[in-house]
Amino acid sequence: MSFLRWVTEKLSVESLRDLDLFGEQAQGLSHRNAHEDRQESLTSPPRRDTMGSFLPDSGSYELLTVIGRGLDDLMTVNLARYRPTGEHVAIRRIDMESCTNDMVTYLQSELHVSKLFHHTSILPYKSVFIAENELWVITPFMAYGSARDLICSHFADGMTELTIAYLLLGILRALEYIHHMGYVHRSVKASHVLISADGQVCMSGLRSIFSLIRHGQRARVVHDFPQYSVKVLPWLSPEVLQQNLEGYDFRSDIYSLGITACELANGHVPFKDMPATQFVPTQMLLEKLNGTVPCLLDTTTIPPEELSMTPSRSGADSGICEGPGAGSVRHSNGEPSSSSGGHPYNRTFSPHFHAFVELCLQRDPEKRPSATTLTGHPFFKQIKRRPSEALPELLRPVTPITNFEGTQPQDPHSGLASLESGLSHLEVDDWDF
């Protein structure tokens, strides 16, 4: 039996159809048990764009342009138009014939979770189906891209505190739901924080997610190390990297949230430049185990004499607080965007923001608050409006990619060239990997 045939039978027919991933949602909903209903009771109201709302037929989608690749080049991401409604979507097309058994298992886990989860702060999968030798995964096109895209293209020295507050609250709401459902995300980072044209913040990156439920019981800790995790090592907590008998739980995601907060505020990722592999993250692990704690870079963490200096363009800032005597390289941004020549970190974040980050980055997991507790932190009291009202204004001069005129078949070349130019800054391959 060919591998593709095995995948089609095992993945699409048994696993996917049993999970109701082929648009037969009404039948699946009638079979959900009371336990699942209770688990979903604390979430926001069901939305319309759940799995099965888009047709599982490749002919219903007009592929416009390639906007990313991933999964060792086995995945191509297309911007596409859904023909019945004209809505634009992102399509991940995965070459199943070339996938290894481990990759298939990895994909099955993601698709299983995507069916179980229904929350407005988690990226929805609108349809999943097999087209010839490819697995097609249909998701909304997030017109602002990821938070990482925005940092790379417009906010090299970090975002404003209020913008970050909206993004972190969206992440926390997703994590609160994920943890309540008995899962650990294990891949919280800015490239997995997506923003739609109307300012909706969604969490992605479900491929690394891991369940705490074993044999019907919720385990206290898990010991599994994330597969394909080299890209996410700087965000992982000390206890995940340590891989000892004590294991880790949902609080490892809270540490990753703290690293993400530093990433959003400073414009780069702490520990990013430390050499590491999936199997030997030695230096990074030692730094985290020894209590090296990243921080927000501003006037309260950078010595005044350094703020008066023009930052060097060589080397990237680790964003790590090591005390007032640390050298100036530690605080140089590497790619400062300040045209006036002043220090890009000559700013002051609120004490509440600093306290929030310190709570998330506690070395002892027991001292880290839960996602539910953190949503009530004073840091979020500055939020006065809905994200849909505030984020488009806060993200200026960035505008969402919503102009698709000129991409019609009668004008393919000029329209697609303009569209590809507008999409060129998006790291779409990292939205879910």
From TrEMBL:
What molecular function does GO assign, one term?
protein serine/threonine kinase activator activity
Q: Which UniProt keywords apply?
A: Cell cycle, Cytoplasm, Kinase, Nucleus, Phosphoprotein, Transferase
Q: Which residues form the Protein kinase domain?
A: 61-380
Region (Disordered) residue ranges read: 28-56, 303-345, 401-421
Location in the cell reads: Cytoplasm; Nucleus
Q: Where is the signal peptide?
A: none
Q: Which GO terms describe its biological process?
A: protein export from nucleus
Residue ranges, compositional bias (Basic and acidic residues): 33-50
Q: Which PROSITE patterns match?
A: PROTEIN_KINASE_DOM
What InterPro entries would the database entry show? Kinase-like_dom_sf, Prot_kinase_dom, STRAD_A/B-like
Bias-annotated ranges (Polar residues): 330-341, 401-411
Major place of residence: cytoplasm
This protein's GO cellular component annotations are: cytoplasm; nucleus; serine/threonine protein kinase complex
| Summary of subunit composition and partner proteins | Component of a trimeric complex composed of STK11/LKB1, STRAD (STRADA or STRADB) and CAB39/MO25 (CAB39/MO25alpha or CAB39L/MO25beta): the complex tethers STK11/LKB1 in the cytoplasm and stimulates its catalytic activity.
Biological role: Pseudokinase which, in complex with CAB39/MO25 (CAB39/MO25alpha or CAB39L/MO25beta), binds to and activates STK11/LKB1. Adopts a closed conformation typical of active protein kinases and binds STK11/LKB1 as a pseudosubstrate, promoting conformational change of STK11/LKB1 in an active conformation.
- Family per similarity comment: Belongs to the protein kinase superfamily. STE Ser/Thr protein kinase family. STE20 subfamily.
Which protein is depicted? Answer: STE20-related kinase adapter protein alpha
